[in-house]
Design goal:
alpha+beta; four-stranded antiparallel sheet; 2 helices
Length: about 130
């Protein structure tokens, strides 16, 4: 099994509803995001996936979130936890790869190469992961 990983970052504000503590107040993070792709087979160039495709998709998604209040994004239903942010980024990367490069990296990928996880770090020591 092969795995590649790329990273990007963004800064955003949020607050957590239904949370009793300091995170219920508006605050911000400098998020770090890792996207992981795995598979058993390399392409004719000896690569699992061109890093450029994955980096571009991840960076585009992070740009959409950068310097926003995540609570304003309806997909988070006013509760943008790190777990929901990871799932959102995962789905947006899949969509970008389909739209821009005609790549299917879903669990049903015909080549067996798939986007297997997205990690979202709120701090150096606090991470949420969305995986399939």
């Amino acid at each position: 099994m092969y795995e590649v990983r790329v990273e990007a970052d963004f800064a955003a504000a949020h607050f957590l509803r239904d949370y009793h503590g300091k995170c219920e107040n508006l605050h911000g993070h400098n998020y770090k995001v890792y996207a992981h792709v795995s598979g058993n087979k390399l392409n004719e160039g000896g690569m699992l996936l061109d890093f450029t495709f994955l980096k571009t998709a991840l960076r585009d998604v992070c740009k959409e979130l950068d310097h926003t209040n995540l609570n304003d994004n309806p997909v988070f239903d006013q509760n943008p936890s790190a777990e929901r942010i990871a799932e959102y980024i995962y789905n947006r990367i899949l969509a970008r790869l389909r739209e821009n490069y005609n790549l299917d990296l879903s669990i049903n990928s015909p080549d067996g190469v798939k986007l297997c996880a997205v990690d979202v770090f709120e701090t150096e020591t606090s991470r949420a992961r969305y995986t399939i």
